[in-house]
Amino acid sequence: MQPIRRQLVAAGAASLLAPFLSGCAKTQPREEFKPVVGQAGKDVIWVPTPDAVVERMLDMAEVKRGERVVDLGSGDGKIAIAAAKRGARARGIEFNPDMVEVSKRNAKQAGVEVDFQQGDIFKADFTDADVVTLYLLPSLNEKLRPILLNMRPGTRVTSHQFNMGDWTPDRSEDVSGRTAHLWIVPAKLAGTWAVRVAGEPMQVQLQQQFQTLDGHAMLGGRRVPVEQAVVRGQSVRFAVPAGGAGAMRFEGTADASGRISGTVVAGGQSRPFTATRA
Ligand SMILES: C[S@@+](CC[C@H](N)C(=O)[O-])C[C@H]1O[C@@H](n2cnc3c(N)ncnc32)[C@H](O)[C@@H]1O
Predict the structure, then answer these.
(1) With a 6 A CB cut-off, is 41 part of the ligand 1 pocket?
(2) For the chain, which has fewer Cβ within 10 Å, the N-terminal or C-terminal residue?
(3) Measured from the CB, is residue 47 less than 6 Å from ligand 1?
(4) Strand pairing category for 171-175 and 178-184
(5) Ligand 1 centre from 45 Cα, in Å?
(6) Is the CB–ligand 1 distance for residue 83 below 6 Å?
(7) Residue 59 binned pLDDT confidence (cut-offs 50, 70, 90)
(8) What gap in Å lies between CA 251 and CA 202, rounded to an integer?
(9) How does pLDDT run across 165-184, given as a tens digit for each residue?
(10) 158 CB within 6 A, ligand 1
């Protein structure tokens, strides 16, 4: 072959191969994933919570700066991003890796830092959170319930729309036809308590169903019912009828060591009390 002809053949071959060669050398930018409302998810589809509901959920949970907020099934990240804008240490757990990328992009655009992780909410550990946000399904809320009830007393759980079986919310609010619910994880107070009021002992027996308490007290050898008993996070209140002197109204705080301390008001007098497990 003539030298000039050889060069032309080589040049032609190179130009034919060029698109393939350049395709190998440079990877084409991957097309950006565009989420579609109603797309399948592992246990529930993706539907974003409307902005007004997001803000109300965070208001009801009284999210404070520096608190840990986790959105379970974080979708495009909007709840966690709104929490981060309030100064919270926000985290989102989402099964769909494409949605995790979308939420990371959205956080960057919003100028906030959020820890978005790919994972299954039933396998991830989120028990260090101060606030848990949910928009899942009633059955999934109920499946999460034992984990939520074992979290630190006072942890706030807020759910868009769906409830939690027979654990009734501490508060529910309507937001333009949607509902936002709030639960406060109650301290575990069931059992027998030795209560001391100004040195005088009294035994109180409590049964507990979530945030509702029931029971009786042994007072001067008499068994009297415990009334108006409620636990809200670590705070507890109950009344013990004390005959002619009216009711003794107890208000206290349960600490991590299993002790309740507070004040009891009876006959117009306020005195300190402590209660320890008997
Ligand atoms: C109804 S959307 C709520 C999204 C977001 N929390 C909001 O309120 O805007 C539920 C999300 O949970 C995700 N999801 C479903 N099952 C999950 C699982 N087992 N673990 C983690 N994420 C899950 C879905 O992919 C979807 O993005």
Answers:
(1) yes
(2) N
(3) yes
(4) antiparallel
(5) 7
(6) no
(7) very high
(8) 16
(9) 999 999 999 999 999 999 99
(10) no
Question: Which stretches does DSSP call E strand in 84-186?
Answer: 89-94, 115-118, 131-134, 156-160, 171-175, 178-184
Give the type of residue at 253.
Answer: T
Report domain 51-184's class. alpha beta
How many secondary structure helices (H) and strands (E) does the chain include? 5, 16
Mutating to test ligand 1, I would choose from 33, 51, 121 the residue with most ligand atoms within 8 A of its C-beta, which is 121
Mutate to test the pocket of ligand 1, among 100, 136, 157 (most ligand atoms within 8 A of CB): 136
Over residues 161-167, the mean pLDDT reads 97
Supply the pTM of this predicted model: 0.88
Residue 84 in tokens: 């981060």
Task: Return the CATH number of the domain spanning residue range 191-277.
Answer: 2.40.128.120
Q: Is 75 in the pocket of ligand 1 (CB under 6 A)?
A: yes
Q: What residue type is assigned to position 83 of the chain?
A: A
How far is ligand 1, taken at its centre, from the CA of residue 221, in Å?
Answer: 56
**Gap between the Cα atoms of 108 and 102, Å rounded:** 10
